[in-house]
Structures are given as structure tokens and as C-alpha cells.
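SEQUENCE-TO-STRUCTURE ENTRY
===========================
Question of interest: how does this chain fold, as expressed in C-alpha cells?
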Amino acid sequence: MNRRAFLKKVAKSFFLILSISILPLLSYLYPVRVREKAIQFFPITKEEELPEKGIRRVDFSYEKNGRRINANVYLVQSNNGLIALSPVCTHLGCIVKWSDIKGEFLCPCHGGRYNSEGMVIGGPPPAPLNRLPVETRDGVVYIGLKV
């Protein structure tokens, strides 16, 4: 075996081993196909307990896979009707708080600021607060979640 044939075999072996070791890494990094989940509606409050104007935080719980999950949502009664906003900041997932003094949602982590309808008015958040589907049936307010 001459030198050229030996180097070809070494190079082929190296790239074969490299490709075999990279395949599992690529399959790990390739995003899993996200399954579209159906929206389920959960009762959160009575219609009579809604604010006539303004914002109210509502704590509620629901069951998922046999576990009880506690959650909260902000209900905003505005000129556009009833809006349900997720309290999760779109920057890094911190929980925003409503400030009556400033009249805006504030993120305690990195200074994100949202107006009363969840639109970004300052800080690093890339998008407004997520709006959740909301329905009122038989005097009860339901919130829609993908679970």
C-alpha cells in the first residue's frame, strides 16, 4: 500500500466516523414536530365579578394529566370589550404585575413595560402580552388555554 492509498483510507475513515457521530446530534437539535393542541375553556370567574372598567387579576386552577395546575390571568375591561392577557412577559418569561400608580404592566426582571391592553411601551420585550381567548356563557367567564 502506497502513501496516497493509506491517506485516502484514513480520510475516508475519519469522515465516516465524524458523520456517524454527528447524526445523533443533528437529530437531537432538529425541532420536534409541534403538535397543534386544541383549546380547552376553563371557568375562571362569574360575570358579575368583572370590573366595569379597568383590570383585575384572576387566579384559577385547572387539571392537566391528573395534576392540579394553578394559574392566573389579567382580565381587562376596555372600550374594545373584555380582553384576557397572559401575565407572562414575552421577553424572558417573567410574570408581569399591574401597577395602579403607573397605569401599566411592569416586568420586574428587565424593566419591560406594557400598556393596559398588553402592547409594549418600553423595555426589551419583543412582542405584546399574549391575548387569550375569552368567552362568557350563562353568567360565567371562561378562558381558553392550549393544554
Remarks:
- The two ends are 64 Å apart (CA to CA).
- Residues 3-29 form the longest helix (27 residues).
- The CA atoms of residues 10 and 16 lie 10 Å apart.
